[in-house]
Amino acid sequence: MVDQLEISETNEKRNQIIVNRKYKFNLWYTTNNTKVFKCTEYKTVNKCKSYITLNDNNKVIKYENKHTHPGKEYDASVSIVKHKMKNEIRKSSFPFDIKPKRIYEEISQEIGYICPEYNTIKSQILRYKNKQLPPDISTFNEIPDESEYYINERNENFMIFKNSNIIIFQSPFQTELFIEYNENMFVDGTFYIAPTFGYQVFITRVYAPEINSFYSTSLSILNNKEQSTYELLFEELKKNASKYNNNIIITPKILHCDFEKGISNAAIKIFPNITIKYCVWHYKRSLKIQKYKLCHNEVEHNHNIYLFYKAVTNFPFINPEYIFDIYNYIKIICQVYNYYHFLNFLEYFNKTYLYKYDIQCWNYCNDINHITNNASVSFNNYLKKLFYKKPSFYELIYHLKKEESLSYNNYKRKIGGIWKKKEEY
Ligand SMILES: [Zn+2]
User: Fold this and answer.
1) Does the pTM exceed 0.85?
2) How far apart are CA 201 and CA 207, in angstroms?
3) Distance between CA 150 and CA 159 in Å, rounded?
4) 3-state DSSP call for residue 3?
5) CA dist., res. 206 & res. 324, Å (int)
6) What is the Å distance from ligand 1's center to 138 Cα?
7) From ligand 1's centre to the CA of 59, what distance in Å?
8) Topology of 144-278 in CATH?
9) Is residue 322 scored above 70 in pLDDT?
């Protein structure tokens, strides 16, 4: 009776056999050219004496079929599903992408009606999946200088620079984009997707006007937000680009960035002729935060103050020649009516946006092109959606690489003319 003998594996070694989907046999001992498996019920009150002997080629040479107990169909099917799922997970070279539930659904279809619920095996499968991942990194110093994970899908090295404060990823394709479209350079940092040990992920992007698209040109993990670290980043990007550009130096014209002096000072130092444009989205967000801190109630409950607040948030779009006058007019009225909290807000605005930063850096009246395109910010939102919690280092690298590959294909398709302008939105 050796019909329908189904053999599964628990791990790389074959040490479990399931027969007719109802009897489980575990490896008992091996000899030079045979393996003997005993029914798992031999230890229980059933004291089942059934066993199976296999030869070198895993062919059955003896099956002692004297079960003292009924078949355990459910128990066997749990094992079969687990073995099959582990096989699928083991086959995948990058286990970050594995969707265990989807694998389960395919397997349960083929198993048929006796199949355990996904939830009963879920925790074991997730533990197995995690064991397949590369070891996690918990400090910046543990980041390796070289890794198979730094090789992108086109077999190119993706990592161009690393020291104790920064690691920079840029593929040759991204370098070429930077050379081609460096007139407007967008940068933004995000803490949300940084691996737990890293301070921030910093992304540089460019805009390709002929196909109306933004592309990332580098992705870095920074250990701090020192100006010197940003300088190093810009210096390396400049160096790498000129290496690919017959040693001709790249000179970006406009840098669009967050209100962070460290970034703009670093950019000016490395690219002396660059113009700094702060991002309107950050401008509005920082005013909103100050509103909550200083004058939320006044703005919400007094319509005049509400209109003043709106006027200030719209300063980036107003002719800069009028800004001081409007600011002073609002201030005088607030003093007359003693709008004490809003005066504090105006003082913050004055110190930050009229003194600390040049109005030209956040005013877009003469250059309306880029105000609606908070390219980096929306890209960060896209990345955020990929991670439901802070990613591990390798998980982040894996996703950055994947994004690089998608944008490579996207760019080649659009620039190749297959892409039709009319399909845009
Ligand atoms: Zn048995």
Assistant:
1) no
2) 20
3) 6
4) coil
5) 33
6) 48
7) 20
8) Nucleotidyltransferase; domain 5 (3.30.420)
9) yes
Annotate 44-101 with DSSP letters as a single string: STT----EEEEETTS-EEEEE---SS---HHHHHHHHHHHHHHHHHHH-S-GGG--HH
Please give the DSSP secondary-structure letter assigned to residue 36.
Answer: E
| 239 C-alpha to ligand 1 centroid (Å) | 70
Which of 139-148, 163-172, 371-380 shows the lowest mean pLDDT across its residues? 371-380
Spans of all domains in the chain:
5-64, 74-132, 144-278
**pLDDT at residue number 391:** 83
Q: From the CA of 105, how far away is ligand 1's center (Å)?
A: 30
**Å from CA of 44 to ligand 1 middle:** 10
Position 67, amino acid: H
Residues 8/11/14/19 CA torsion (nearest 10 deg): -20
Kindly give the distance from the C-alpha atom of residue 30 to the centroid of ligand 1, in angstroms, as a whole number.
20
Find the 69 Cα to ligand 1 centroid distance in Å. 6
87, 9 contact by CB (below 8 A): yes
Judge contact between 114 and 73, C-beta under 8 A: yes
Q: Is the pLDDT assigned to residue 181 strictly greater than 90? A: yes
Residue type at 350? N
* CA 374 – CA 256 distance, rounded (Å): 9
Q: Report the interhelical angle of 118-132 vs 73-91 (nearest 10°).
A: 30
Residue 124 has pLDDT above 70, yes or no: yes
The one-letter amino acid at 203: I
CB-based neighbours (< 5 A) of ligand 1, an ion: 39, 41, 48, 50, 67
Give distance in angstroms: CA of 50 to centre of ligand 1: 5
Tokens 């086959």 found at: 91
Distance 79 CA to ligand 1 centre (A): 16
CA 39 – ligand 1 centroid, Å: 5
Dist. CA 48 → ligand 1 center (Å) = 5
